[in-house]
Design brief:
Blueprint (H helix, E strand, L loop, with lengths): L2 E3 L13 H10 L2 E7 L3 H13 L3 E5 L13 H8 L5 E10 L7 H18 L3 E6 L2 H13 L7 H4 L2 E3 L9 H6 L2 E5 L9 H9 L5 E3 L21 H11 L4 H16 L6
Parallel strand pairs: 1-2, 2-3, 3-4, 4-5, 5-6, 6-7, 7-8
Helix pairs in contact: 2-3, 9-10
The structure holds zinc ion (ZN).
Length: 268
């Protein structure tokens, strides 16, 4: 069984002391691909350093909406340069966060728009963070994608992933049509999470991705502890139960989804 963790923050201090052991456990759990998104310039560089060090680790670069206040007139060019690294597979994580609100909405939107344009220019998919901002965010993403409808570029077909996707939304079908993928993580395993269970069955299976968001959002029974990529197994197992399939099949399908979305640069 081979698994992919499409979203983990292994450069954070929670992994400082034992990363080699974390990676050893991830290998034992069948994780053959890990994608590490940046949150700002420093963490984007840190993600690339890990990708340079470990064969099955890849990076994404970008400014998270909670860090958007750090964006200045040099940031776009810095991210563009980092995105040329052969192990950078996406721009992310980018998006809108109206829950923590560290940055004005207008600034968040401007930083998001600039990074969407950058992704289009570099022909890279995006990794989208969203908290309490769907009604503003989804129309922006759909507009962005519509602008590329006639493009022959790769990301016109493989737009990106809505990371930690967790809500049934009137625009869900449109997002599917616009070639977005949907990241499923730890919360799906929480016993009281009926909405998530329903949601998984309403998304086409060829658009599901597995992700831990480690060190955050640990799956059951690790709630309250540090999350790590090896726990991707538990998310795959829960999705298998919900869809009445074997876990091997879910692993294989989500792995090929991951490859389809992020493989462009690896094949060239
Ligand atoms: Zn994240």
């Amino acid at each position: 069984m081979r698994l992919s963790d499409t979203h983990c923050h292994l450069y954070l201090s929670q992994f400082e002391e034992d990363l080699p052991f974390v990676l050893q456990r991830s290998r034992q759990a069948g994780i053959e691909f890990m994608l590490i998104p940046g949150l700002d310039l420093e963490t984007s560089q840190a993600a690339i350093r890990l990708a340079e060090k470990y064969e099955n680790i890849y990076a994404a670069v970008g400014f998270h909406p909670n860090e958007a206040y750090k964006w200045d007139e040099t940031s776009a060019e810095s991210i563009r340069q980092l995105s040329q690294h052969p192990k950078v597979l996406a721009i992310g994580e980018i998006g809108l966060d109206y829950y923590r609100n560290t940055t004005d909405k207008e600034v968040q939107m401007e930083v998001l728009q600039q990074q969407l344009q950058l992704a289009a220019g570099m022909d890279l998919p995006v990794i989208i963070h969203n908290r309490k901002a769907s009604d503003d965010l989804y129309p922006i993403l759909l507009d962005w994608q519509k602008g590329m409808a006639t493009s022959t570029k790769n990301h016109a077909k493989q737009a990106g992933v809505l990371h930690a996707f967790n809500e049934d939304h009137p625009l869900l079908e449109k997002l599917v049509e616009a070639n977005f993928y949907f990241g499923m993580g730890g919360p799906i395993t929480y016993a009281n999470n009926k909405n998530m269970s329903l949601l998984v069955t309403s998304i086409p299976i060829n658009r599901l991705l597995l992700e831990t968001d480690a060190p955050f959002l640990p799956p059951h029974p690790y709630r309250g502890q540090r999350n790590e990529p090896a726990y991707t197994q538990l998310i795959a197992a829960k999705i298998a139960t919900l869809l009445s399939k074997e876990v091997d099949e879910i692993a294989e399908i989500t792995f090929s989804n991951t490859t389809r979305l992020f493989s462009w640069r690896r094949e060239h």
